[in-house]
Amino acid sequence: MVQTSTSASAAPPALELSRVVKSFGAVVALSSGSLTLEQGSIHALIGENGAGKSTLVKIVAGLYRRDSGDFRLRGEEVDFSNTAQSKAAGIAVIYQEPTLFPDLSVTENIFMGRQPTNRFGRIDRKAMRTEAVEIFERLGVRLDPDRLTEGLSIADQQIIEIAKAISLDARVLIMDEPTAALSGVEVERLFAVARSLRDEGRALLFISHRFDEVFDLCDTVTVMRDGKYIDTMPISDTSIDELVRLMVGRDVTEMFPKLPAEIGEDVLVVDGLTSTGVFHDISFTVKSGEIVGLAGLVGAGRSEVVRAIFGVDHYESGSVQVNGQPLRKGRPTASMAQGIALVPEDRRKQGLVLDQSVTRNVTLAIRKRLAKWGLIWGGLENASAEIWASRLEVKTAALDAEAGTLSGGNQQKVVLGKWLSTEPKVLIVDEPTRGIDVGTKAEVHRLISKLAQDGLAIIMISSELPEVLGMADRVLVMREGRLTGEFDRADATPEAVMFAATAEGAAA
């Protein structure tokens, strides 16, 4: 049952949605969405991609209007037809990637569109700055109110969005996957800010796929599945296994399905790779049928190394060989020709053309192969896309649907399909399950394991230590641009890997 206030004297819930329905034509995005946020609490909303979480949030934010159901704010019925009405009612949404004006200052971004004026009708910049400083002091963060927002980290941009919400006296704050691009230190700072807002009596909704963060931060959790409300409970009365079962409607007993694979000869040999100030003297090998996990803290240089191997980034010295043949540096096309595929960390910006069809995205890397007499044959393009969409079980209404309309997990499958269609010998996957729900994570893990079983040499970068330990045959650890540890699967314990990843592991 959805938790509601039962005492006549108690304050009404900060926000309450009950049996909300929302359809887009024949597609039912929400068939029964319910959520109750109490004042002075942090409430988690979890569910697989496609569970209806985003649709529910967009109704609260005024982007969508519900078809039916109840929506109350502090006990009063509301019906927003635009985002301005939602903001005016005291609701603020902090997204994973904030949208600020890069050429304006921190203070100007906080007060954009509602700058205070002095008695002469001019913008009162002193009053704006004073209030910005007071808000940052309340939040316990150090941020220069006068600097331009261009170049600020995602973490600092989110703090600016929170400051904007406080300046508007927002009583309900929604954080949608706010930690996906943050380091551990940045996450802790964000959580400290969230707790201080809760202690002021505000209601916070926290949406995340990371269970450790849900249990660390939240007081209550609501689970959604297939557009429906499933259950709400105090976080202290549940467990990860129980939440997973409620989310997927079944027990996910094998999150890391490691299939037996015959490990063969060296396919990729990296020797002494160095890029001044980024990474130094990186040497390792990857064999056919082997999954090599690349672990380390955010900023250790893992992504930079694989980007240099693929030819996207520059390096000064060292060499790379594929099946005994030297690889020309700085040439992604040469890497592709020799059988290297790179699934990038940011699939939306670097892996997909979001406004192009699924078919076009899957076949992007093999368009020359599909061309005849200088023309792309639609039949060949559709047939190739159909093969990989079917093999990877991409869930989409049609292959001509835009890639941007797919869920995060299905977008990741499309990127994988694009690169697997090139028939690579070496597959590099950078954060393969970031932002993907728990059920789809198991599918991606199973796919990666099957590819290794088929003989691919795989490098997998992940910031989730259980993922590295569960999938890798061998774990390489980086710290500050250097390799500081190498462990076989049997010896790769969480303690050993973290020791090598931190400053204490310098002598490892």
UniProtKB/TrEMBL annotation:
<dbReference type="Pfam" id="PF00005">
    <property type="entry name" value="ABC_tran"/>
</dbReference>
<keyword id="KW-1003">Cell membrane</keyword>
<keyword id="KW-1278">Translocase</keyword>
<keyword id="KW-0677">Repeat</keyword>
<dbReference type="InterPro" id="IPR003593">
    <property type="entry name" value="AAA+_ATPase"/>
</dbReference>
<keyword id="KW-0547">Nucleotide-binding</keyword>
<dbReference type="GO" id="GO:0016887">
    <property type="term" value="F:ATP hydrolysis activity"/>
</dbReference>
<keyword id="KW-0067">ATP-binding</keyword>
<keyword id="KW-0472">Membrane</keyword>
<dbReference type="InterPro" id="IPR017871">
    <property type="entry name" value="ABC_transporter-like_CS"/>
</dbReference>
<dbReference type="GO" id="GO:0005886">
    <property type="term" value="C:plasma membrane"/>
</dbReference>
<keyword id="KW-0813">Transport</keyword>
<dbReference type="InterPro" id="IPR050107">
    <property type="entry name" value="ABC_carbohydrate_import_ATPase"/>
</dbReference>
<dbReference type="GO" id="GO:0005524">
    <property type="term" value="F:ATP binding"/>
</dbReference>
<protein>
    <submittedName>
        <fullName>Ribose import ATP-binding protein RbsA</fullName>
    </submittedName>
</protein>
<keyword id="KW-0762">Sugar transport</keyword>
<feature type="domain" description="ABC transporter">
    <location>
        <begin position="262"/>
        <end position="505"/>
    </location>
</feature>
<dbReference type="InterPro" id="IPR027417">
    <property type="entry name" value="P-loop_NTPase"/>
</dbReference>
<dbReference type="InterPro" id="IPR003439">
    <property type="entry name" value="ABC_transporter-like_ATP-bd"/>
</dbReference>
<feature type="domain" description="ABC transporter">
    <location>
        <begin position="15"/>
        <end position="251"/>
    </location>
</feature>
